[in-house]
Amino acid sequence: MTMIATCAAAGSAAVLLPVSVTAQQQGMQVSEFRLANGLDVVVIPDRRTPVVTHMLWYRIGSADETPGKSGLAHFLEHLMFKGTEKNPAGRFSQVVATIGGQENAFTSQDYTAYFQRVTKENLEQVMTFEADRMTGLQLTDEVVLPERDVVLEERRMRTDNDPAAQLSEALSAALYVNHPYGRPIIGWMHEIQQLSRESALDFYRRFYTPNNAVLVLAGDLDEKEARALAEKTYGKVPRVAEVAPRVRPVEPEPRAHRRITLADQRVRQPSLSRYYLVPSYRTAAGGEAEALEVLAQILGGGQTSRLYRTLVVEKGIAANAGAWYQGTSLDATRFGLYASPRPGTSLESLEAALDEVVAQIAKHGVDAGEIDRVKTRVIASTIFSQDNQTTLARIYGAALTTGMNTASVKEWPEKIKAVTPEQVQEAAKKWLDIRRAVTGHLVRPQDSAPEKRT
Amino acid sequence: MTMIATCAAAGSAAVLLPVSVTAQQQGMQVSEFRLANGLDVVVIPDRRTPVVTHMLWYRIGSADETPGKSGLAHFLEHLMFKGTEKNPAGRFSQVVATIGGQENAFTSQDYTAYFQRVTKENLEQVMTFEADRMTGLQLTDEVVLPERDVVLEERRMRTDNDPAAQLSEALSAALYVNHPYGRPIIGWMHEIQQLSRESALDFYRRFYTPNNAVLVLAGDLDEKEARALAEKTYGKVPRVAEVAPRVRPVEPEPRAHRRITLADQRVRQPSLSRYYLVPSYRTAAGGEAEALEVLAQILGGGQTSRLYRTLVVEKGIAANAGAWYQGTSLDATRFGLYASPRPGTSLESLEAALDEVVAQIAKHGVDAGEIDRVKTRVIASTIFSQDNQTTLARIYGAALTTGMNTASVKEWPEKIKAVTPEQVQEAAKKWLDIRRAVTGHLVRPQDSAPEKRT
């Protein structure tokens, strides 16, 4: 197993989007405790099969990097597979494969996580491995430099050869003028090229310590078993660093709409993307994040949403259209709209129609029936999500590494239920203000006459 | 004299634009030396009147600030007038006023400078004052907090109440996605509000040290006199800090045109601005910066320039149009175009006409007569600049704090003369590529139908 195929540096918004859990409703006993060395532990019992999902989350992501060293959090994620004194490179992954387990790792703007899914009897072994590499990583230039080439190739594949990914990168860079969310998780090419063994080890020693991590165990065990195993493995890891509060530069109040046109011969389907700068669950005032979540669903959650119905079904000018809200974020985050035109429709007219749909909600609000249907659907999707141990574990891990806690995860469905039509309208008015936005057009060069230079 | 009226935080590109000196031609003996504590000294004799311009330049500007503390370099510039143990607040300025001198201070992205213009017999006194505050600054919250309010008010006046300044700020923020030139010199409002006495002193102690400064003396003295005075005053200041190389995050290769529309009721005259990311004198490969300088003049230097002739005179669609190149910059810098439409002309059609002027040069180049006239004019303007002691001193100070040296200033006219038509065409092709650009439209709300939300 190589990290190229499995790690998820692109930081897709989709993963943590509109799902949560109704743990209380299901009588699920999610518990949490903290070890003496500061490690937070969340236990999510799921007794259906003798399997456990083991995830270790660090409260460290690309937004915590030093300016000029973008990509370091993700690079270190790769390097974490390069071995320790006790376990040479590859042994951990090999053991997971041998016992029929699965493993993965991913880096976001706010966290870096490692996980394995194994049968219960192998849990202690993977916990021992993971605890060992929390502070025991050993790196030589012989392994660091080739791995850097792997990451550079990953960037080429995922971003530099993909115009849509380039545009998305440019949109985030334009949306965030001051906050580090403006830089790509994988890093800028020219900065990845400069990342060194020393930088990686320095970053590792500053941030990889039990008091900066969250262990999530979901599966066939209870709190008592979890505690015993955690004490026996992670409990022995010393607290090697004190970690300062995560205070990042804050965005100034945006006041001018920005537009980006990316023209590339490789574009097959032109498209339109818009990001608005909005509050996250952590930064929002009471109820605003939940209202944005509901608004995203009303505007663009599936084929019954307003954008889809209006642009795709009624007007027939779009092949696709939708909306999303990345609420799980330590700092101010993104609300997105997107649409692709049918042949014969310009991006300009598609954008005008999309703007009209947004303006309708801001002006006339939403009706009670519409909001109820959306809430029911959102909450139902959280019940389905419980069927997936990994999804559940990810929800808790992401929450606890972006400034929320288990209580906020548990209360989430009730808070969604409490969202009123007035709050949704107010959210559209206040946050989907064009001055807070950046709009991207992805086109083929000939589609973009005003940008053409001859 | 208060600092509000005199300090120049806006960092106008105009000051250091296309002027330099032909010192050799004039037989002017500009000399330089370094004191034992690391202070660089430049002496520019000018014996016409018994007056000396005394400038102390620090190699520290807004681009050297810690992220999240924008505005600190400029704030410290204000605080430098708050007194030392030997000289309480206001005494230095009062003495300068009493002796009939002038003083000023300014902060840019790359430097912070303090200057006085006094009669020769008062020079030693101002040098003594300036040397004293190099390391002797004392600050209390009683002076720091009210001065912060002064800076906040300065920001409100200069930027927040001026739509054109807001757009300019937004354009730089969009042009620079990774490098700190993207943040305003004066700082983001919410970050200025958090600047503290401790932050200011910490910044001061790190960067205000003789080995991080350049003393420029222009006027009625020779090298020997200058050396004696410098030794006697600045020579006694200890080297209090070692300063790390100024390595800032580098911009990724831009690849998508960005547009910003700022609509504001206060806009009287709509306008169009474009910035391209281009190399500076320090970062450019041989001859490229000089070619950009000549290109800026051909495109937009005055009423004989191509933009003015085409848009204002021939087509009659613009009230004004021009171009500039901010070559004096430690890192990758801006090349700017601007135009204001006559009533009845849309910004879109004005922009298309402007693009056509640029495209003509990229496609067909410039002719020998045109380039010769521009070079003659540029070089002549440097001769006029010698008549102004302050301008001369500023040219050397800015050069020596942005990675250049006195030799590069002296050689500059010869290098301008050497620019070929082919280099100018190549510069237009390579650097005035729309993908490297951000374009701003400043409009009244009703002028901007596509952005309007009802």
Which descriptor suits the 3D outline of chain A? Answer: globular
Q: What's the Cα radius of gyration of chain A?
A: 23 Å
Strand order in space, largest sheet of chain A: 1-2-6-3-5-4
The chain pair forming the largest interface, with residue counts per chain, is: A-B, 47 and 47 residues
- Fraction in beta strands of chain A: 15-25%
Q: In words, what does this structure look like?
A:
2 copies of one chain form a homodimer. Chain A is of the alpha+beta class. In chain A, 41% of the residues lie in helices and 17% in strands. Chain A has 16 helices and 11 strands. Chain A has helices at 3-6, 72-79, 91-98, 123-135, 141-160, 163-175, 189-192, 197-207, 223-232, 288-300, 306-314, 347-364, 368-385, 389-400, 406-417, 421-431; strands at residues 31-34, 40-45, 51-58, 102-107, 112-119, 213-219, 257-263, 271-278, 318-325, 333-341, 437-443. In chain A, strands 1-2-6-3-5-4 form a 6-stranded mixed β-sheet, sandwiched between helices. In chain A, α2 (72-79) crosses α8 (197-207) and α11 (306-314) packs across α12. The longest helix of chain A has 20 residues, at 141-160. Chain A starts with a helix and ends in an 11-residue tail after the last strand. The model of chain A is unreliable at 1-26 and 448-454 (pLDDT under 50). The interface between A and B is large, with 47 and 47 residues. β7 of chain A pairs antiparallel with β7 of chain B.
